Amino acid sequence: MRTLPKLARPIGMLAFLLAVFASLLLSAPAVQAQTLAAPVSASTPSPSPSPESPASTPDSFPNTINGVLRNAGQPVAGVTIRATGEGFSGETVTSETGAWTIGVPVQGTYQVELDVTTLPEGVALAEGAQNPREVTFANTSNAGAIFPLGEGIVVQSQSFGELLAERMLAGLSFGLLLALASVGLSLIFGTTGLTNFAHGEMVTLGAVLMFFLAGLGLPIWLAAALAIVGGGLSGYIQDAGLWKPLRRRGSGIIPMMIVSIGLALAARYTIQLFFGGSTQQLPGARSPQIEFGAVSISQNTLQSLIISTIVVLVVSFLLLKTRIGKATRAVADNPALASASGIDVDRVIRLVWTVGGVLAALGGILWAYYRPGVTFNMGQQILLLIFAAVVLGGLGTVFGALLGSVIVGIFVEVSTIWLEADLKFVGALLIMIIVLLFRPQGILGRRERVG
Amino acid sequence: MDFLNILTGALGEIISPTTAAYALAALGLAVHFGYSGLLNFGQAGFMAMGAYGFAISTLTFNAPFWLAVLVALACSVGFAFLLGIPTLRLRADYLSIVTIAAAEVVRYIVTTNSLTDITGSAGGLNGFADGFYALNPFPEGTYNLGFISLSARDLWVRVAAWIVVAICCVIVWLLMRSPWGRVLKGIREDENAVRSLGKNVYSYKMQALVIGGVFGTLAGVLFTLPRSSVQPANYGSELTFFLWTCLLLGGMATVLGPVIGAMLFWVVLSLTQGLLYGAIGAGYITFISIPQAGQLRYIMVGIALMLLMIFRPQGVLGNKKELAFS
Questions:
Q1: Which of A52-56, A347-351, B222-226 has the lowest mean pLDDT?
Q2: CA distance linking residue A378 with residue A371, whole number of Å
């Protein structure tokens, strides 16, 4: 067993490289898609974040309603679009690329109206298309409004089954990216007992790093890979510089939890210091919809689904089949016993922190594409869903976290069929509280007294 | 840079109603965590209960001031039961996750657009404090307190807020030296030992949760009164974490600790804000902007929370033997 820790590093690196490779491979088509859909370049990233300037002109408002007007694949320029609501009204004209953006002061519900008299000859709104239509912000700072154009094109109304299938697919994608973050959190909890409130900031870090790296002009795959490396480094440094010394001192679980809250606050506002308070888009954030019959999913969401599935499978394989994976599970099960049987517990924990950082960073990048948008507090928004997923599955169990994430992801998306979009996280949190009532140890947790 | 202004501003924070609200909410946390060992990370939710319970009953149902306060308190008791029933039997870290989640649920619900008529969604509510200011016993005029001069309205809100804080401090002091308080401390130290003495641990914890939550709710009312407005964005998890910082600054198993912690917290925040803004305005500091200086202060709070927890977990006043964790 003495040789076991020595294996930790190479296998960890292997897992990591595999993950990077997988994401590399799969993000290549995204680059092409991005260049094809290039006209929408209103939100190309710039390395210098725009400062929060006082909202004097509509464009400087923190929240935006936007869309792209196309007719038969061709952009439609010069069409007036108006947004009114929340005591505000703004107007814009679509650009050469058909893109339009209206800045609004507060997130809320707006009536967006397309001025049909400004449409060019021979172009009309599709039959059945709502105009004006209602747009509601869903906890993000941008909301989209699509006006389907084209003479005689009828907007397809989806049946409930199709809608459900579509939401389930999107939810699965969301759940799996959630799983990336929650597996890391669960591993850290399992091996150290720490409920890491700073995990959300590790998620943000991945997306923000990618944004800055892409802003430097790096290709999308390299930026993603480096951001993921950065995430892993942050996990490694955190453990080496903070958590290991605290464990040495024999700090209790609750003090460490409060330290993690302090770290989360400090990290969140450090990120805001450099990134600013606005929402920025990663390259290729707008992607075409792919249709499977009546079910449509955006290309980014589909790619995110594939990437996270592969990474989750790789992590599961490593945990179940490799020596270091078994060692990790042994430490999670009983650190003292694991230590007595020759496992270098500190080394396993260091690896867990590093892998946790890697997974969180990847999750952050995918979450930035899913929302879409990068903000300094995006990790904070997802943190409670991660907690919900982990508690639902059973604190400290890796596969419980995975299952919990998928349930939470699907639940969040499916609930938007009935719930307002800005309440979609509420359902998932309530589900967590209800599950705790009846099965405190979570779905896959072992029965033991948790009181 | 006007040092005198910055200094008096910081001193004014000692008696500001916001400080009183923070002190009271942190006192609630002291009952929860310092005395009972309950890890409540949802104090912002209790404060939101107070703020919205008061504002909605005043605006939507035209309730008089006292009735509105009672409604807010009833909401908070209900919220405490809702939180306590599923989680008080569980380990401390479960309670922390559920309370923070419940507080966020409250915030999402008051922010949602579907309830705009009642909650005002993201814009919040305002103009509901007339009932409170109608009770003002001070005649119109300016009152000079030496370093700060206040209008009758400002004086009344400060006096009322600190009277409430003082009453609550006395209540906590009396409660914690009673047999009931000793059982609570016993639960904090060793739950099973207390259970073996035949005490109903679950019921005691629930009572502590309700009492601390009621303090949080009163704090929520105090918090909204000076501005007469409530904004949902103020009741995020950051608020809870700031309250924890106040609690840990002062000392968690003490009566006056949370009050002193809140005063220290606001004086330091006000001083650093004044100095940073002044230095930026005067051109001494050029590498950060005004909003960045605001973020710098929050970074400081985060680092202070970490350092406090690592190096002086008992806070300014606390006794190291009385820590809810060892």
A1: A52-56
A2: 9
Query: Which chain B residues are within 8 Å of A450, Cβ to Cβ?
Result: 90-91, 94
Residue A122 and residue A184 in one domain: no
Task: Report ipTM (2 d.p.).
Answer: 0.90
Which of A429, A432, A447 to mutate to probe the B interface, most B CBs <10 Å?
Answer: A429
Residue where a domain terminates, one of A155, A190, A219: A155
Chain A residue numbers touching B119 (CB-CB < 8 A) = none
Q: C-alpha distances in angstroms, A59 versus A65, A142, A186, A423?
A: 11, 12, 42, 27
Of A87, A120, A155, the domain-final residue: A155
Same domain membership, residue A287 and residue A208: yes
pLDDT band at A95 (very low <50, low <70, confident <90, very high): confident
Among candidates B112, B122, B292 on the partner chain, residue whose Cβ is nearest the Cβ of A423 = B112
In A425-444, the residues whose Cβ lies within 8 Å of chain B are 425-426, 429-430, 432-434, 436-437, 440
A384 and B295 in contact by Cβ < 8 A?
A: no
For residue A190, being part of any structural domain is answered with yes
Residue A39 within any structural domain of the chain: no
Mean pLDDT of chain A: 79
pLDDT averaged per 10 residues in sequence order, chain B, 326 residues: 83 92 96 92 95 93 93 95 85 84 92 86 86 89 82 92 96 95 91 92 95 96 91 92 93 91 93 87 81 86 91 81 62
Question: In chain A, which residues have their Cβ closer than 8 Å to the Cβ of B85?
Answer: 437
Q: In this complex, which of B122, B298, B305 lies closest to A258 when CB atoms are compared?
A: B305
- Per the CB < 8 Å rule, is B93 touching A395? yes
The reply to whether A116 and A172 lie within a common domain is no
Chain B interface, best mutation among A433, A438, A439, A441, by max B CB count within 10 A: A433
Taking Cα atoms as reference points, which of B308, B313, B312, B307 lies closest to residue B325? B313
Of residues A55, A60, A106, the one with CA closest to residue A83: A106
Give the pLDDT band of residue A289 (cuts 50, 70, 90): confident
Provide the angle, in degrees to the nearest 10, between the axes of the packed helices B17-29 and B237-250: 80
Cα angle B99-B104-B106, degrees, rounded to a multiple of 5? 95
Greatest mean pLDDT among A358-372, A414-428, A433-447? A358-372
The model carries a pTM of 0.79
Residue A451 lies in a domain: no
pLDDT at A250: 84
Q: Is the CB of residue A90 less than 8 Å from the CB of residue A103?
A: yes
Question: Nearest 10 degrees: CA dihedral of B193, B195, B197, B201?
Answer: 120
Tell me: do A193 and A275 sit in the same domain: yes
Nearest by Cα to A273 from B192, B291, B313: B291
- Look up the CATH number of the domain holding residue A112: 2.60.40.10
Q: Are residues A178 and A306 in the same domain?
A: yes
A378 membership: H or E segment, kind and range = helix A378-393
Rounded to a whole number of angstroms, the distance from the CA of B83 to the nearest CA of chain A is 9
Same domain, A80 and A173: no
Pick the CATH number of B3-322 from 1.10.238, 1.10.3470, 1.20.1330, 1.20.120: 1.10.3470
The residue range of the domain holding A67 is: 58-155
